[in-house]
Design brief:
By secondary structure, the chain is an alpha+beta fold. It has one domain. It has helices spanning 19-27, 37-47, 62-65; strands at 8-12, 31-35. α1 (19-27) links the parallel β1 (8-12) and β2 (31-35). The longest helix has 11 residues, at 37-47. The termini are far apart. One of its GO terms (biological process) is DNA restriction-modification system.
C-alpha cells in the first residue's frame, strides 16, 4: 500500500481469505476491505444484480415410495 501511496484497498476473491490475511488486515495501519464469495453473493442479492425472484416447489417423498418401473 505504501508503495502505491494508497489510502485504502479492496481485495476480492471468489474463495475465502486465509486467517493470516485477515489478521494482517486487522493489524495494518491502512483501511483494507476483504470481500469473499459469501460477501459477493450478499451484495448481488442486496442490489438485485442480475437476479430475479422465482418460486421453488419441493417435491414430497411420494415419488420414492411407489415403483414406477415399466413392466414388459
Amino acid at each position: 500500500m505504501d508503495k502505491y501511496n494508497a489510502e485504502y484497498g479492496i481485495f476480492i476473491t471468489t474463495s475465502d481469505f486465509s486467517r493470516s490475511a485477515i489478521e494482517a488486515v486487522r493489524q495494518g495501519t491502512r483501511v483494507i476491505t476483504l470481500i469473499n464469495s459469501e460477501d459477493i453473493a450478499d451484495l448481488v442479492a442486496k442490489y438485485k444484480l442480475h437476479v430475479r425472484e422465482v418460486t421453488t416447489y419441493e417435491l414430497g417423498d411420494f415419488y420414492h415410495t411407489e415403483d414406477y418401473t415399466v413392466k414388459r
